[in-house]
Amino acid sequence: MIPYGEDAPLLRTRGLRYAWRGSENALAFDDLVVGRGDRLFLCGPSGSGKSTLLGLLAGVLSPTEGDVSVLGTSFAASTPAARDGFRANHLGYVFQQFNLLPFLDPMQNVLLGCAWSRERAARAGSTRASVRSEAKRLLLALGLDARTILHAHTGELSVGQQQRVAAARAMIGGPALLLADEPTSALDSTSRNAFLRLLLEECRRHGTGVVFVSHDLSLARHFDRSVSLWPFAAHVRAGAAS
Fold first, then answer.
1. What confidence tens digit (pLDDT) does each residue in 14-57 have?
2. What CATH number does the domain containing 114 carry?
3. What is the count of structural domains for the chain?
4. Which long-range contacts (CB under 8 A, 24 or more apart) does 32-36 make?
5. Does a structural domain hold residue 114?
6. Taking a C-beta distance cutoff of 8 angstroms, is the pair 235, 228 a contact?
7. Tens digit of pLDDT for each residue in 138-195?
8. Considering the domain boundaries, does residue 18 fall inside one?
9. How far from 218 is each of 81, 93, 215, 222, 228, CA to CA, in Å?
């Protein structure tokens, strides 16, 4: 596990509430605590606030009330620039739509995970060559073949292949926390489970904690515990997911 030095839990939320400007609707979330290396499954129907909660956990969105802290760092007490820097150094994010650059090859897309963080780059390798080697290792470990990694434009890849590139980009440099927003929604059940096993194995390798969003309850068995969200509220279900 990567030593981050603090005794604080990986992730803690307190009194989170998010209200949309001009709307009477608001989302209120029960407090969460996620330990280092923990795997949390976040589920709920469309409109229940799953993506909004991930945005709050990443510091991309600011809550109307409450606070999020990661590795003991309070987002409420941080400037936007400080949150951006902290996120680049310590968080990996797998977006539902992947947010890859289609004209780059998979290797170039993965290396973008280190482009804005010297800390991430240093954890990935001591030289440029070793960082590239780690990017290739991640892509191979997540199921891409060597020719595709170096010679294909990412925009030409299948959905499943793009998903693997997005996951490798989020994982490079061993972030403390991985946030994943329904990255398996376009895959069949066999592919979903195979990909998830590979992803979680990489997280174990790095000691990375995971908050994984999905509407597919069958995936909950891969995680330590689950949180169920319903429209305009969140309810923590204690214990390991079945």
1. 999 998 877 777 788 889 999 999 999 998 887 778 888 999 99
2. 3.40.50.300
3. 1
4. 32/227, 32/236, 33/9, 34/9, 34/10, 34/177, 34/209, 34/211, 35/9, 35/10, 35/209, 36/1, 36/4, 36/9, 36/10, 36/176, 36/207, 36/209
5. yes
6. yes
7. 999 998 999 899 889 999 999 889 999 999 999 999 999 999 998 887 778 888 888 8
8. yes
9. 38, 22, 9, 9, 13
- What is the extent of the structural domain holding 53? 11-237
Task: Assess if residue 224 is contained within a domain.
Answer: yes
Given a contact cutoff of 8 angstroms between Cβ atoms, the answer to whether 87 and 59 are in contact is yes
SS3 of the chain: the string is: CCCCCCCCCCEEEEEEEEECCCCCCEEECCCCEECCCCEEEEECCCCCCHHHHHHHHCCCCCCCEEEEEECCEECCCCCHHHHHHHHHHHEEEECCCCCCCCCCCHHHHHHHHHHCCHHHHHHHCCCHHHHHHHHHHHHHHCCCCHHHHHHCCHHHCCHHHHHHHHHHHHHCCCCCEEEEECCCCCCCHHHHHHHHHHHHHHHHHHCCEEEEECCCHHHHHHCCEEEEEECCEEEEECCCCC
Residues in CB range of 187: below 8 A, 6 or more apart: 159, 160, 163, 195
Q: Evaluate whether residue 1 is within a structural domain.
A: no
